[in-house]
C-alpha cells in the first residue's frame, strides 16, 4: 500500500497520528519494532483476538506505516523502511515509549515461537477430534 501524501507531496502526518493514536495500534507497532511478524504472532504477543489484530493492522497499512512480505502462506508485517524522516522519528519515539509502558508484550513475543501459526495449524489438525459416522 502506498503512503498517503498530502497535496504538497509530503506524508500526511495527520493520518499517521490518527493511526498511531490508538493504544492497540501503538502496541502493534511496538512489537513490530522488534521483528517482522505475522498476525498470529502479534495476536499472541498482545493477547488479542486475531480479528482485532487484523482490523488494526489494516488501519496501519492504510496509513502507509507498514509493508508486507509473503512467507509461503503467511503475510509478514514490518514497519516501512522508507518512511520520511519526520514519520520515522515519530514511530521510533512511539516504539520506545510503548516498549517501556508495555514490557509484557515484548516478553510474550520473546516466548512465542517464530511463525506460531504454522505450529498452531499443525497442532489443531493433529488434535481435532474425529467424528464417527455410524450407519443407521
From TrEMBL:
Which residues belong to any copy of the HTH arsR-type domain?
5-99
Looking at the keywords, is rRNA-binding present? no
Instruction: Name the SUPFAM superfamilies for this protein.
Output: Winged helix' DNA-binding domain
Keywords (A to Z) from UniProt: DNA-binding, Transcription, Transcription regulation
Q: Quote any Pfam family the record assigns.
A: HTH_5
User: What organism is this sequence from?
Assistant: Candidatus Cryosericum odellii
State one molecular function term (GO): DNA-binding transcription factor activity
Which named protein is this? Answer: ArsR family transcriptional regulator
Note the NCBIfam families from the entry.
HTH_metalloreg
